[in-house]
Amino acid sequence: MALLPPMFDEKEKIGGRFHNVGTRELGAALMGMLEEEGHGQNWTAWVLTYDGNLYVKRQPNAAPDSVWPDDEKREFARNLVIRLNREVPYLGAWVVAWYGDRKWLMLWKDHDGDKQVVIFNDEPWVRQKGTPIEKWLSDAEAAILKWTAIRAGLALKPTQLHKAALGENPRIIVH
């Protein structure tokens, strides 16, 4: 299911221009991606649109006793998603999500809205919280560069690609 601005729980205007991924593409299939990555755990996601609107969404229909990230983790996610999209967008856009109050991820979507890179972290927060944000930016950039090299090595033709997040079905070619 697409996650578009009217469906978000919170909005903050950051201002500026961050990446070139349209809001439709950024929100395309995002809830399903977050569900898939979290294996059913409750999630809270931070999404920054190309025009500087920061949205926060909690998993719909979560159990009443669900655990959510505290203010410190929320601020970390906010700052990280802003910096990722400002400094390492690489023709895509980043989403940051917490699962409960312990695990978190950085998810990179390409310009069509397809999930391409996921960096999951489940180290205890007490060990992570002192880590400079530049380390996470560096990890994200390294992952994008590795993904780009792998994809380039495949030498895929446009006819071999499909835009899954936008609902395009894969082409099946029988020889």
Structure keywords:
alpha+beta; six-stranded antiparallel beta sheet; 5 helices; 175 residues
Describe the model:
A 6-stranded antiparallel beta sheet has the order 1-3-2-4-5-6, with helices on both faces. α3 crosses α5. It is built from 5 helices and 6 strands, in the order βααββαβββαα. The protein has one domain. Helices cover about 35% and strands about 20% of the residues. The chain starts with 9 loop residues before the first strand and ends in a 21-residue tail after the last helix. It is α+β, with helices and mostly antiparallel strands and about 180 residues long.
In short:
This protein has five helices and six strands. The protein is α+β, with helices and mostly antiparallel strands and 175 residues long.
- Percent in strands: 15-25%
Summarize the helix and strand pattern as letters. EHHEEHEEEHH
How many beta-strand segments? 6
Mean of pLDDT = 86
Biggest sheet descriptor: 6 strands, antiparallel
Please identify the structural class as seen in this structure. Answer: alpha+beta
The structural domain count equals 1
Give the strand line-up of the largest sheet. 1-3-2-4-5-6
> Can you give the helix content as a percent range?
25-40%
Note poorly predicted spans: none
Distance between the termini: 34 Å
Quaternary structure state of the chains depicted: single chain
What is the radius of gyration computed over CA atoms, rounded to a whole number of angstroms?
Answer: 16 Å
Give the overall silhouette: globular
Number of helices: 5
